[in-house]
Design brief:
Aspartate Aminotransferase, domain 1, seven-stranded mixed sheet, 2 domains, alpha/beta, 16 strands, 15 helices, binds ligand T4K, single chain, Aspartate Aminotransferase, domain 2
């Protein structure tokens, strides 16, 4: 365990990890079950277009989410777009900016206009009063995001959307298996969208799903994700956003492991909590223990006024130690191209949180010793933050002086 600033890899010490420890490492699965399913698909010679594995995956996802319909898709980005097309959305889509860029890009790609709305800094999710303030006659829909698996104020948004007659849907990419006031994610709004990307708690390599209790909407989404083909041929136009049988084989095997994955994630989360307890200026983002959580993200919040070291430098420090932490989500969407030019807006709460948060490694490939080591580094960073920041700045100045001196001729 490193105890001194001199030991840090950014100042010449050896890295704390021999090989990279990554946020987003795919979770463990039972490989033989996966291969059995793959062999079965190959033997059956049915590899895509709504085959038996996809149908089974859809049934199990719908069951878990407590809804009647699930349409499995090639990813969540396409799934968001399928709903937007099926519902005929137009105009502005109100959404948070503290989310993965896909939430915004998915809508903009269809010619819809993301309207970013500020969040509640305590939850990281949409603040309903802010949503109300930006609702207008141009609003086409409200798109809530369950950031890090913490369910946004879905019931309050449902009330607001119903009062104002505006469609409401949710990007639940992070929230498979989570609940809010006992209600399972999947049944809020018109539809909810899951991601089953390789980095997610349930992985289909790449994958997503639209889930809903609205049978008619599900039928339309199903047709749209398969070129518009329905029972009576090509009636609606559409795209190709299908999940393959290989993706479903992985998704089913990952679903088999879901309970174990979540239990492991929760143990990791509890360990982060105890290891970081009482560290001034570092907080672990909390999950409500009365709800079901999937704990797929472990997020720390760094207050550089207290620690003297900011989030970016903590990320850099960890990287030098072979710990790949990710600033989910920074910069937030409205601070990125093309939105900062197209739709300049100031969102103080979003900007405040986005500067401070950092996802640290968890998942079933991360063990207790890994977490103890990561926390040791974070504790050292927080305790010696000012010294590290000053020394890093001096080192950077020296580096740039040296490269100016020895720069290649002609540069
Ligand atoms: N809405 C929200 C709120 C989302 O978070 C996302 C996706 C979406 C919508 C869209 O869902 P999809 O259309 O993707 O289904 C990653 C994922 O690619 C993305 O799916 C995810 N959110 C986002 C939060 O994380 P990046 O840009 O951070 O990916 P990348 O390549 O830097 O990888 C992330 C980490 O995972 C790295 O540390 C490397 C590690 N990794 C990654 C892969 C793919 C592995 O260790 N193994 C792997 O196989 O976006």
């Amino acid at each position: 365990m490193k105890r001194a600033v001199n030991d840090l890899a950014m100042f010449g010490g050896s890295p704390a990890f021999l090989r990279p420890l990554l946020v987003g490492r795919p979770n463990k699965i039972d490989r033989s079950r996966f291969l059995d399913r793959m062999n079965w698909a190959l033997d059956n010679q049915w590899l895509s277009n709504g085959g038996p594995l996809v149908r089974e995956f859809e049934e199990r996802v719908a069951d878990s989410a407590g809804v009647r319909n699930c349409v499995a898709t090639c990813n969540a980005t396409a799934a968001l777009q399928l709903y937007a097309r099926a519902a005929g959305l137009t105009g502005e889509i109100i959404m948070p900016s503290l989310t993965f860029i896909a939430t915004a890009h998915a809508m903009r790609w269809l010619g819809l206009k993301p309207v970013f709305c500020d969040i509640d800094r305590e939850t990281g999710c949409l603040d309903v009063s802010n949503v109300e303030a930006v609702l207008s006659e141009h609003t086409g829909a409200i798109l809530g995001v369950h950031l890090w698996g913490r369910v946004c104020p879905a019931e309050d948004l449902e009330k607001l959307a119903a009062d104002r007659g505006v469609p409401l849907f949710f990007d639940a990419a992070h929230a498979f298996g989570c609940t809010s006031f006992g209600r399972t994610v999947g049944g809020f709004g018109a539809v909810e969208v899951f991601s089953f990307h390789a980095t997610k708690v349930v992985s289909a390599f790449e994958g997503g799903a639209v889930v809903t209790d609205d049978d008619e909407l599900a039928k339309q989404v199903r047709a749209l994700h398969n070129f518009g083909f329905g029972g009576h041929g090509n009636f609606a136009g559409g795209t190709n956003a299908k999940l393959s049988e290989a993706g479903a084989a992985m998704g089913l095997t990952s679903l088999d492991a879901f309970g174990e994955t979540v239990a492991h994630n929760q143990e990791n989360y509890e360990l982060y909590r105890s290891e970081l307890d009482g560290v001034p200026g570092v907080d672990l983002v909390e999950f409500d223990s009365h709800e079901h959580n999937n704990y797929q993200y472990a997020i720390i919040d760094i207050d550089d006024d207290v620690t003297g070291i900011d989030r970016n430098l903590v990320q850099e420090l960890l990287l030098a130690e072979q710990v790949v932490a990710k600033p989910y989500f920074s910069p937030s969407c409205h601070e990125q191209t093309p939105y900062r030019a197209e739709n300049p807006v100031s969102l103080p709460e979003t900007e405040y949180l986005s500067r401070r948060v950092l996802a640290v490694p968890t998942g079933t490939q991360t063990n207790r010793e890994d977490i103890r080591r990561v926390c040791g580094l974070i504790r050292l960073a927080a305790a010696e933050g000012r010294t590290i920041s000053d020394r890093w700045r001096r080192q950077k100045c020296l580096d740039s002086e040296m490269s100016a001196k020895h720069g290649q001729p002609g540069h």
